[in-house]
Specification:
It is built from twelve helices and 18 strands. It is α+β, with helices and mostly antiparallel strands and 414 residues long. The protein has two domains: 291 residues, Zn peptidases (Aminopeptidase); 114 residues, Alpha-Beta Plaits (2-Layer Sandwich), CATH 3.30.70.360. The strands form four sheets. Strands 1, 2, 3, 5, 6, 7, 15, 16 and 17 form a nine-stranded mixed β-sheet that branches. α1 packs across α3 and α10 crosses α12. It binds (2S)-amino(hydroxy)ethanoic acid and manganese (II) ion (2 copies). The site of (2S)-amino(hydroxy)ethanoic acid has 6 residues, from loops.
Length: 414
């Protein structure tokens, strides 16, 4: 097993080449799901997989599966993958690392002339980020049966584009039926996107689970009126109501420390004119906690706060939960395979729970799944400065390779 080494330089070069698609001035990436830039990234990935001798399948949600045959085609495949879409101010590694680390496994198997027992597949999931089409992880969610296909295809962006329409437009509305096929195991390499591994000087995160999430959409309705003649005490200011609501989101997040996370990331106010009192405000809430009951309590507190604000400020406030992702525990055998690989390869490691959601969270419902984390600089992600070191990127891919091989069956030279 010890000579089974991936090529870290080749992986890094592929990451940097892909990062040129949608590159931003600050060194990040903006490749929103199903835009032309996402299509270009997908096309490059497909070309590389074909060059590596893989057969390609695209399903009805645009998930791309690149398959390397194994000795026994009847065995369920071992998958490695992640996503190619990014946040608006995203980085080079969030998503592409897991996809290209999977491709690096294929390339290394080819270099070493190794035939695995089971087929190995690399997958690029559609719309993991949920930045353009909410919620997150819709491609893997439909594959895993969490959402039905109509729900997935009907997700609508703020500009009115539908996920299904955009899949058609960029030519990635595939013929393959969704999911419903045996998968031997699924592994995903990802940057941690938080500060723990770097702070502790650990190279590998052995991910044993992910925290729960709830996403909400809040609409505040007041009354547009003139900013000049309207006395303060008669106003029904929707933006002031939203501000109080946002303050409550933060207060609730702080009240449920040490693990709660509470974020308002998107706000729209209308009519957005300096001298008109806002009459209509829309904002989003992202609540997370490893403990499901605490997350429910945060939800209840938010609803109570918004009710009180509506009454006090004579506003109409509606809150809709649009997404709930329960806490995830990955398969113990997959977690152990990652831990054993890190041990065998001599990498420092620690068990860790994922603060972020990942496609592996949904894949864990249909296949034994595990994840490999590597540190990112300053723990920063969903930011154009997102960075990781070449040795860590290689180390994570090395661990991924050994974990996949542990499930793909003994590797023999062809
Ligand atoms: O939001 C998340 O956790 C992921 O980046 N989609
Ligand atoms: Mn990601
Ligand atoms: Mn992300």
């Amino acid at each position: 097993m010890e000579n089974l080494r991936i090529d870290g330089d080749r992986l890094w070069a592929s990451l940097m080449e892909l990062a040129r698609i949608g590159a931003t001035e600050k060194g990040g990436v903006c490749r929103l799901a199903l835009t032309d830039l996402d299509r270009q990234g997908r096309d490059l990935f497909v070309r590389w997989c074909k060059e590596a001798g893989c057969s390609i399948e695209v399903d009805k949600m645009g998930n791309i599966f690149a398959r390397r045959a194994g000795r026994n085609p009847s065995l369920p495949p071992i998958l490695a993958g992640s996503h190619l879409d990014s946040q608006p101010t995203g980085g080079k590694f969030d998503g592409p690392y897991g996809v290209l680390a999977g491709l690096e496994i294929i390339r290394t198997l080819n270099d070493l002339g190794i035939e695995t027992d089971a087929p190995v597949e690399v997958v690029a999931w559609t719309n993991e980020e949920g930045a353009r089409f909410a919620p997150s992880m819709t491609g893997s969610g439909v594959f895993a049966g969490v959402f039905d296909l109509d729900y997935g295809l009907s997700r609508t962006a703020l500009d009115g584009a539908t996920l299904g329409g955009e899949l058609e437009r960029i030519g990635y509305s595939g013929p393959t039926a969704m999911g419903n096929r045996p998968i031997g195991a699924y592994f995903e390499a990802h940057i941690e996107q938080g500060p723990i591994l770097e702070a502790e000087g650990k190279t590998i995160g052995v991910v044993f689970g992910a925290q729960a999430q709830r996403w909400f959409e809040v609409t505040v309705i007041g009354q547009e009126a003139h900013a000049g003649p309207t006395p303060m005490h008669v106003r029904r200011d929707a933006l002031l109501g939203a501000a109080r609501g946002i303050q409550e989101v933060n207060r609730i997040g702080l009240a449920y420390q040490p693990n709660a996370c509470a974020t308002v990331g998107l706000i729209q106010s209308s009519p957005n004119s300096r001298n008109t009192i806002p009459g209509h405000v829309f904002f989003t809430v992202d609540f997370r906690h490893p403990d499901d009951e605490k997350l429910s309590a945060m939800n209840a507190e938010l609803r109570a706060s918004l009710e009180r604000i509506a009454e006090e400020s004579k506003l109409e406030i509606a809150i809709e939960e649009i997404w709930y992702s329960p806490p995830v525990r990955f398969d113990p055998a997959c977690v152990q395979a990652v831990r054993d690989a890190a041990d065998r390869l001599g990498y420092s490691h620690r068990d860790i729970v994922s603060g972020a959601g990942h496609d592996a969270c949904y894949m864990s419902r249909v296949a034994p799944s595990g994840m490999v984390f590597v540190p990112c600089e300053g723990g920063i992600s969903h930011n154009e400065v997102e960075n990781a070191s070449k040795p860590d990127i290689a180390a994570g891919a090395q661990v991924l390779f050994h974990a996949v091989l542990a499930f793909a069956g003994e590797a023999k030279a062809r």
